[in-house]
Amino acid sequence: MALRPLKLRNKTVSIPIVQGGMGVGISWERLAGAIAREGAVGV
Hints:
Layout: E1 6-8, E2 11-13, E3 18-19, H1 29-37, E4 41-42
Parallel strand pairs: 3-4
Antiparallel strand pairs: 1-2
């Protein structure tokens, strides 16, 4: 199954996966940055 790109206004994310977390230190900038470098969305 192929995943379609995620489009948000004028931005397109090639890998339609959004990473995020709830809690202390779950998604600090290092994890979010690593996800973003792979083409997904790190928040």
